[in-house]
Amino acid sequence: MSADSAAARHELDGRIKGDGPLARDTLLYTNTHPHSQAHESAVKHVTGRAAYIDDLSAPANTLHVALGLSPVAHGRLTRLDLKKVKAMPGVVDVVAVNEVPGHTDIGPVFPGDPIFVEDEISYVGQVIFAVAAESHRAAREAVQAAVVEIDEQPACLDPVAAAERKEFVRPSHVQQSGDWEQALNNATLTVEGEQFVGGQEHFYLEGQACLVQPTEDEGVVVFTSNQHPSETQKLVAEVLDIPFHAVTVEVRRMGGGFGGKETQASPWACIAALFARRTGRATRVRLPRAEDMRATGKRHPFHNRYRLGVDDQGVILGGEITVIGDCGYSPDLSDAIVDRAMFHSDNAYSLGDARVTGHRARTHTASNTAFRGFGGPQGMMVIEAAMDDIARRMGEDPLTIRKRNFYRPGRQTTHYGQEVDQIALLKELTDQLETSSDYWERRHAITEFNAESPIVKRGLALTPVKFGISFTAKHLNQAGALLHVYTDGSVMINHGGTEMGQGLHTKICQVAARELGLDAKEVRITATRTDKVPNTSPTAASSGADLNGQAARDACMKLKQRLFDFAHEHLYPDQGLDREDMRLEAGHLITGHGESERRIPWGELVQSAYLNRISLSEKGFYATPLIHYDRNVGQGRPFYYYAFGAAVAEVSVDTLTGEYQVDRVDILHDVGDSLNPAIDIGQVEGGFIQGMGWLTSEELKWNDAGRLISDGPATYKIPTYGDLPPVFNVNLLEGHPNSMASIYRSKAVGEPPFMLGMAVWSALRDALASLADYAEAPRLDTPATPERVLMAAETLRAKYGARNDTWPLEKGAE
Q1: Both 103 and 172 in a single domain?
Q2: Cβ atoms 524, 491 nearer than 8 A
Q3: CA dist 178 to 312, 379, 430, Å?
Q4: I need a surface site. Which of 43, 341, 546, 621 has the fewest CB within 10 A?
Q5: Mean pLDDT confidence for 674-693
Q6: Whether 607 and 499 share a structural domain
Q7: Per-residue pLDDT at 272 exceeds 70
Q8: pLDDT tens digits for 297-343?
């Protein structure tokens, strides 16, 4: 190990042990911040006491389900004979489409998702039938006895070809501002390019799973690993042909979701509910990892193209961007996902007079679905590629070009008509990170290193993030909460959001404790249930804390005002408690100041209220204001506010093999006034690593027949401990509260950090550009595996030539 590597490893070990530079800065800040608090289930997580779906106790006669999946990507089902399946040992029931009493299409927004194949088969892994047996093994063995005959037909796996044939799952959409063609005509320089952005498997540690128990009133209770309990309630009810109120869905926690359990947890609940109602027995579904990966959708792969006109300073005047989302076989959430890719095709930069077009291509793969960022990352990739390309054409550093193109006074309206607030914050954040990361000193050192190093090349990049916060479907921007205070003073809060490890429940407990003036340990949260808070939105779009936090606060404020009114009118009337000066702090109702201060313990207040028949329960509600979007004209304000961030990444690339490593990462991220800095730091770190994995190692591969062959951890590579940058500095921007009235002026933190991973991809392009004396940034599709990096290096060598065998480069050589 080199001295530098040893020092880096010491840095990493010290950080983990809590005595490194990051520990002294970030960890000290998060540990001492008044709002920092451990995850409410942290101890349960590390001791194994946190119950997930497979940990739940079930009745002794619980049935186990296995699925009969399509082995072909496209065709027609000509024969399905399940007689031998029914005769297999341990089999209790078998269902196919003809046994469904209610709806057979469970599309979440638009139709197109049959619960079982009826005729047409659209992807490898589509469910044809299901078996319920006394054991999981018996069910899986029985599936193999089915006689399935399929008239196989050619499959389309190319979204570009599908778009050219106008094979779309939903209509195309256009957003436009100004005369983009005239902007191109007036430009000093026109830059154009295209890229393929790969998809991503969610790879949640807890796979798709549910347990359904029948009830005595013809209904069901569904325990599920699920980001959208209300939607699952609706679909289960429609499949069973029963009222919504007959279905109760409960989610205590998920072992990861990332969007993969927003819509695609529902089919398994529907299938299990069918068996539960038909047999009167509890039914469990859990998908093996390979089946899970084949049967469920991924992050949408995208094909992006751009043509932009710039002036002599590299500032964008206008142009056109086209994004083609590979949606798989059905709409699912693709309409909104491609819309968000279009919304974010500007990232942090003014596009000027621009047209952005989004296509939703149909292919014969599993229907692609929500994934952290919801299309935003794929849209951002196109403009980040353009920034690098403009810089190389102009002979400038990419950071210089990026900063020139930031939204700024006079250029602060997006191509879809929304004005970007806090634009000064974007520049300030970038300037801070540029200084704290020693960007220019390192740039100089890397340029000198690359000039002397013929094989190993280093790269450096700083990329920003501007991410819009709100559901782009307006009606989803609402939330409810239910608050109970018991007579001992303890508090129970319930809300419509779901916990997938991101700390949402912890933050909601903190909101309730903060409003009621209590210690957080006196507030407990319960499982998300559709019979407590109904008609909820999914936990997605980074809006969990924003929406549910405000709903919880609303409930607390209503109850607090009721208690204040009671105390003023009935409690110690001889003391003359001042109604306007009442406050809840440190476990007391307090009024007055100094010598006139009066303190009533919380428990005493609650007991007195109860004895005087004052309700100690309250519901809360919140709906995000101001947002609107007119799809007919492609203009509006789809986002309540924007969250910002920036990352600097440094990489080293072996240009003979394509192998590389990430040497250092510096991040500064905007979360407004953080609800919980400790949790937010963790979200930033985790989001970055997941984004880095998407762009580097996580490669989805299908064979020519349309079968996913990267269907497990042996063939699909998520980042591991060894991929962690040896130097990894993560900080939250301080002193910049949200300009909008969000919960305590905080900002969402779930999705925005994911896109910080773009810095690694841009740094790889920077390292490769040194092979062309920085005259060109090569096309580098993602994931940027070592094979793709090597091919990009070879392409540059072939174009720019070599001298001797050490490859010092001559600019422009043939």
Answers
A1: no
A2: yes
A3: 21, 20, 29
A4: 43
A5: 98
A6: yes
A7: yes
A8: 999 999 999 999 999 999 999 999 999 999 999 999 999 999 999 99
Cα separation of 666 and 471, whole Å? 29
Q: Tell me, what's the pLDDT at 10? A: 44
Q: What pLDDT is attached to residue 5?
A: 42
**Residue position matching structure tokens 């990049």:** 461
Residues 176 and 194 reside in one and the same domain: yes
Would the CA dihedral through 181, 185, 189, 194 be positive or negative? positive
pLDDT at residue 29 in the model:
55
In angstroms, the CA 182 to CA 413 distance is: 19
For the residues 61-83, what does the mean pLDDT come to? 98
Q: Which residues are catalytic?
A: 751
Q: Domain span at residue 238?
A: 53-155+202-295
Q: Is 731 within 8 Å of 433 (Cβ atoms)?
A: no
Please state the pTM of the whole predicted model.
0.94
pLDDT tens per residue across span 248-257? 999 999 999 9
Going from the C-alpha of 208 to that of each of 204, 255, 503, 715, 757, the distances in angstroms are 9, 10, 21, 20, 27
- Residues 455, 328 share a domain: no
Number of domains in the chain: 4
Q: Has residue 365 been placed in a domain?
A: yes
Given pLDDT bands bounded at 50, 70 and 90, which one contains residue 17?
very low
CB neighbours of residue 243 within 10 Å: 10
Place of tokens 């924007």: 642
pLDDT interval class at 572 (50, 70, 90): low
Is 425 inside any structural domain? Answer: no
Q: Are residues 381 and 485 in the same domain?
A: no
pLDDT in tens, 485-495: 999 999 999 99
Residue 154, exposed/middle/buried by CB under 10 A (0-12, 13-18, 19+)? exposed
DSSP state of 658: -
Tokens standing for residue 415: 């191509």
> In this structure, are residues 65 and 284 in contact, taking their beta carbons and an 8 Å threshold?
yes
**Two tokens, residue 119:** 């005729």
**CATH, residue 120:** 3.90.1170.50
Confidence at residue 110, expressed as pLDDT on a 0 to 100 scale: 97
Which residue bears the tokens 């205070």?
485
CA dist list (Å): 374 to 112, 290, 299, 302, 671: 20, 24, 8, 12, 19
The pair of three-digit structure tokens given for residue 785, joined into one six-digit string: 């595996």
- Mean pLDDT confidence for 770-784: 97
Q: Is 290 part of any domain? A: yes
| Tokens, residue 564 | 């204040």
Q: What is the DSSP letter of 186?
A: H
What is the C-alpha separation between 646 and 399, in angstroms, rounded? Answer: 11
Alpha carbon of 608 to those of 570, 572, 613: distances in Å?
9, 11, 9
Decide if pLDDT at 7 tops 60.
no
φ/ψ of 620, rounded to 5, equals: -125, 160
Closest CA to 209 of 390, 52, 394: 52
C-alpha–C-alpha distance, residues 190 and 257, integer Å: 42
3 state SS of 230: helix
Same domain, 602 and 510: yes
Q: What is the Rg, in whole angstroms, of the alpha carbon atoms belonging to the chain?
A: 28
Contact status, residue 284 vs residue 268, Cβ threshold 8 Å: no
The confidence band for 726, taking pLDDT boundaries of 50, 70 and 90, is: very high
Is the pLDDT at 21 greater than 80? The verdict is no
Tell me the CATH number at 547: 3.30.365.10
pLDDT (mean) for 636-647: 98
Q: Who's near 181: CB < 8 A, 6+ residues apart? A: none
Query: If we measure between CA atoms, which residue out of 371, 361, 401, 308 comes closest to residue 196?
Result: 361
Which strands, in side-by-side order, build the sheet including 147-152? 120-121, 75-81, 147-152
